[in-house]
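Design job #97: recover the sequence.
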């Protein structure tokens, strides 16, 4: 029971049902999930700096935190769209404001008057990514922009494996594969990579050069260390860099900025 409780959202506002982790989407307010939440949040915050005055749809918005971030960034309107009934109800109750609203719908059939589409960490879940990107192209019109992200299979999967073991993923991408997919539908494609920075970069170096992964089990500090380390992570422990010159094969995630 204690382990299950660790994977349910804490401290939700009155009347807002907490969500539990399923592996399909990330959640805020779950300390053990904070690495993944901050890894997604940094991209939402980067996009939020670029959508002031725009009409935005956040497709596959999940819990709704990202839609709220986009609205706080000054977007004219933000519609968060998700098909999951529990996620939709949670988002509708938790994130309220004049500029943000939520709709329960399948992403493939959604239509609305927008000029910006945000579609993060979901293209790897769909069976027909070309059809989805064609839909995004139609939604943004002639002068809009779409932001699409996906994990890098080279850093997500175990070394030498063709894909990760995530049962929710239909297709995982290398940088050139993701770029080729985007270029089939958009004339302007800018690809950025998300990398570890600050504390996570030091942790990465400790594993690579100081044998940290072998050391902490011998010292019996694994749980106490990570029980403090993971909840302390913040968006500044990640960095978005354009590629090239950034070596995108070593990126954690790819973020595509797409223009017609």
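Job complete. Output follows.
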């Amino acid at each position: 029971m204690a382990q299950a409780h660790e994977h349910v959202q804490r401290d939700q506002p009155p009347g807002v049902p907490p969500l539990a982790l399923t592996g399909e989407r990330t959640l805020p307010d779950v300390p053990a999930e904070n690495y993944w939440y901050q890894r997604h949040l940094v991209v939402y915050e980067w996009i939020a700096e670029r959508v002031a005055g725009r009409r935005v749809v956040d497709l596959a918005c999940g819990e709704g935190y990202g839609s709220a971030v986009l609205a706080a960034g000054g977007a004219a309107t933000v519609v968060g769209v998700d098909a999951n009934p529990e996620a939709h109800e949670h988002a509708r109750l938790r994130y309220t404001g004049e500029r943000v609203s939520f709709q329960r719908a399948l992403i493939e059939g959604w239509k609305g008057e927008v000029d910006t589409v945000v579609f993060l960490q979901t293209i790897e879940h769909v069976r027909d990514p070309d059809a989805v990107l064609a839909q995004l192209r139609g939604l943004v019109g002639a002068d809009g922009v779409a932001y699409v992200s996906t994990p890098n299979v080279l850093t997500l999967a175990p070394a030498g494996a063709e894909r990760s073991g995530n049962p929710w993923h239909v297709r995982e991408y290398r940088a050139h594969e993701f770029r080729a997919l985007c270029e089939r539908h958009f004339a302007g494609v800018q690809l950025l990579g998300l990398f570890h920075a600050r504390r996570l970069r030091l942790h990465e170096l400790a594993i690579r050069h100081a044998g940290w992964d072998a050391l902490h089990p011998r010292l019996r500090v694994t749980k106490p260390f990570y029980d403090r380390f993971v909840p302390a992570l913040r968006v500044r422990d990640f960095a978005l860099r354009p590629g090239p010159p950034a070596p995108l094969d070593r990126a954690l995630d790819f973020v595509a900025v797409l223009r017609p």
